[in-house]
Each structure stands twice: as C-alpha cells, then as structure tokens.
Design the sequence.
C-alpha cells in the first residue's frame, strides 16, 4: 500500500465488532490495526465514492457479525430478567411473544450511530466523531441503508437483496450507481433474528432506567472479559418497560464508553489526524411495525445514473490450496488440526503477530497477515478454505484429514471435496497436489 497522506474526507471504517460465530480471526482488531493503511488505500482509489461504499458494506457486515457472535447470546437473559414480569410462566410467554415478533416482522426500521476516537497528527489529543445511518428491512431479505453526512443530508444509499445476493449503492452527488454480486452477510430472515439464534446465557446486571421519547426503558448490561483481545467488554440492552420490546443496543456498554460524559467528546476536532479508532456503535429507535413502500427497496438505478458492475468475489482452487500450504508452513511444516473456522489460526496467535513490529515478524508470519489482509480488502470476510467451499463445493462434501500430516508428504490426503456439478471428488495431498477420485476410492465413506 502507498503510504501517502490520508484523505480526511474519506469515511472512517467504523466496525466495532469482536468477531463472528465462524470468524477465523479478530475482524475488529484487524480493522483497528490497519485503519490508517486502509484510509490511505482509499485515498488513492480511482473511484473514491465507490470504494467508500464498499467499505461501508464491510462496516455493516462486521456490525451484524458482532451481533451474531455476542449480543444475541445475551438477549435471552434480558427477556427472562425483566423486572415486574411476573412468574415463570409469564417469563416464557413474554419471551415467546418477543421471539415471534422478531421472527415474523415484515418490515422494520432502526438507526445506527457510530463512534470513532480520532487522534491528532502529533498524537497528543483525541476527539470523538460520529456518523449516522438510517436502516430499514422488508421481508423477504430486503435491506436499505441510508448514509448521512454531518448535516443530516443523504450522502448515499444502499439496497441489498439477500435472496438474489445483489446489492446496489447510489451516489446522488456523482449520479452513479454501483452494482455488486455478493455473498451477503445480511440475515436472510431479518436483521434481529440473531436474538433468537444465539441463546447462550450470560450474567446480566440491571443498571437503571432511561427515559426515551417512546417511554421508559430498562437497561441491562452483560459485562465480560473479551479473551481474544484481553480486555473488559460489555453490551447494553435497552428494553421497553411496558412492551418488553428491544428498542436499542449499545456496544460496548456505557461502563466502557459513555457518549454523554466521555471527556474526548467535549474536544474540538482538528483538520488533520494520525489515527482513527472505531470503537462503539449504538442501534436505536428500533421499530418492528414500520410501514414501508416497495419503492424504497428498488434495485433499479435512477434515470440518468451511470452504472458500474462489480463481479462476485472469487477464491480459486489454487488459492485455497496455497492457503493450506501456508498454514502448514506457519505450523512448522505440519498441517493444522483444523483448516476451517474456528480456527485455522487462533485469535491469540494472529494478535501476537500483529503486536510485533514488521521487522520482527518471520517471513511466514508476514505472508500470513498479508494474505488475510488481502482477502479482507477484497470483501471476502472469511479465509480461503471456508469461502471456497461455500462458493464452489457441494454442501457437506468436504472432509479434512490433515491433522499431523507433514507438508510435502505425497502419500497422505489432507482433505477432499466435490465441486458443484462434478461426479468425482478432489483430493488434496500433503505435497499440495490434487487428484480426482471416485467416491468408492476414498479411504472413508461419503454421503451420496
């Protein structure tokens, strides 16, 4: 990447996520570590508005990944822990009603506020910058994200069709539309179904009430140790006191960042900055009963707009096999116990590499980071094996036997899979060669 001067007008990459249920490494940490490089990269792009929209896409993806990985795991406790909810049967009834509302919502709206801590050019001062987005969803699988400038005017808007895996971003100031084929990370059943899908209990603390335009809400907090980043972390859930509906979500909670009282929020912004640290988002004004016109989700570019089309990201078979070889090199010549998340490389090990100065990293460590970064920049939010299998292979045809296999062993099979539309299987060996094999010739039985 070029190390030229950052463009201060470009979007900050605000993705305060700690991972996802299948994440091969810490996406939030990666984004924070490489904030400046990505900003520089964007400043040199041929179409800055197009590139900015792609980064907004990744920002949105990582926020939803955060919810899938953590917030939803807590919400069941919120439902069961509401004050004055009544006996156990009432708890179950209230939770069932909430689950049904989220699952069956046909149209909903919400807003997101993103917070970024910005450091001055000389590194001595910080201030807080915010960005706003209006969001909407309409079943089945249609999302609309409206990006606002600092004056509250529409800067661009993005519509995603999850079912057909297409997305379009419109930039009115440029009269341009950018159409993408994508392996979308949006939920196919709605933006908040993760609430019902991750029912792992965490201890919750009732931290008080807040008065909102829609009435009083109870605020519940789940505080815990984020082992991947070795830090304290938390989630605040706002639940309407009367309706028991989720109306807001802040990550991290106000015990870590209080937007109203944080000292940096009172500091005036400066013209030049040296570092941007995305660290908090706030989903609020959640409505499950919105009335939305179909025209809001039209993927047809407006009349008079120039259209650019971006194809679907691709990982070739050669790239996938090369990644397996890199993993074996990283593990000192032996293929890892597992080659698909979680984890082909553990969070702790990747973080340890990132914490090193570049000159202190080994060549294979640097290649590992460079490869991961390249896939992130290509908008492939998982590592090559997982993405290749999802895009190119028959579901459930993959079998990994690489544990303990030495790199270069031409007699041992590392894995096999069947490509979509193919009859035979593809077997990858320890020397990274690939052979076609009939199902009956594989050393273990496979599903027909």
Sequence:
């Amino acid at each position: 990447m070029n190390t030229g001067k950052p463009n201060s007008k470009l979007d900050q990459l605000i993705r305060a996520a700690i991972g996802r249920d299948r994440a091969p490494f810490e996406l939030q940490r990666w984004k924070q570590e490489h904030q400046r490089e990505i900003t520089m990269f964007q400043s040199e792009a041929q179409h800055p508005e197009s590139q900015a929209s792609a980064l907004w896409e990744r920002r949105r993806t990582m926020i939803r990944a955060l919810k899938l990985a953590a917030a939803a795991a807590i919400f069941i406790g919120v439902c069961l822990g509401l004050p004055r909810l009544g006996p156990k049967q009432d708890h179950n009834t209230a939770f069932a009603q909430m689950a049904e509302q989220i699952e069956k919502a046909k149209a909903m709206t919400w807003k997101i506020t993103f917070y970024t801590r910005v450091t001055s050019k000389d590194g001595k001062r910080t201030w807080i910058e915010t960005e706003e987005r209006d969001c909407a969803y309409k079943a089945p699988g249609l999302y609309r994200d409206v990006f606002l400038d600092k004056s509250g005017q529409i800067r661009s808007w993005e519509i995603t069709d999850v079912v057909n895996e297409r997305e379009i971003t419109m930039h009115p100031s440029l009269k341009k539309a950018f159409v993408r084929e994508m392996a979308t990370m949006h939920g196919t059943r709605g933006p908040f179904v993760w609430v019902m899908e991750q029912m792992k209990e965490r201890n919750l603390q009732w931290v008080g009430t807040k008065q909102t335009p829609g009435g009083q809400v109870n605020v519940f907090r789940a505080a815990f140790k984020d082992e991947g980043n070795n830090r304290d972390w938390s989630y605040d859930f706002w639940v309407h006191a009367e309706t028991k509906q989720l109306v807001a979500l802040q990550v991290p909670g106000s015990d870590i960042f209080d937007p109203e009282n944080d000292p940096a929020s009172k500091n005036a912004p400066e013209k030049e900055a040296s570092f941007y640290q995305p660290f908090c988002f706030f989903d609020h004004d959640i409505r499950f009963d919105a009335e939305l016109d179909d025209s809001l989700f039209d993927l047809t570019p407006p009349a008079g707009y120039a259209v650019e089309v971006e194809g679907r990201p691709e990982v070739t078979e050669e790239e996938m096999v090369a990644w397996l070889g890199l993993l074996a090199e990283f593990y000192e010549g032996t293929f890892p116990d597992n080659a698909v998340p979680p984890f082909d490389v553990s969070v702790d090990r990747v973080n340890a590499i990132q914490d090193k100065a570049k000159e202190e990293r080994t060549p294979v460590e640097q290649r590992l980071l460079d490869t991961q970064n390249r896939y992130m920049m290509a908008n492939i939010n998982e590592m090559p094996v997982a993405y290749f299998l999802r895009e190119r292979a028959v579901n459930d045809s993959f079998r990994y036997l690489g544990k303990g296999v030495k790199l270069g062993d031409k007699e041992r099979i590392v894995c096999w899979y069947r490509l979509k539309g193919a009859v035979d299987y593809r077997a990858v060996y320890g020397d990274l060669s690939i052979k076609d094999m009939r199902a009956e010739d594989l050393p273990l039985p496979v599903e027909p």
In short: The CA atoms of residues 408 and 431 lie 4 Å apart. The two ends are 47 Å apart (CA to CA). The chain has two domains: 27-310, 317-441. The longest strand covers residues 273-287.
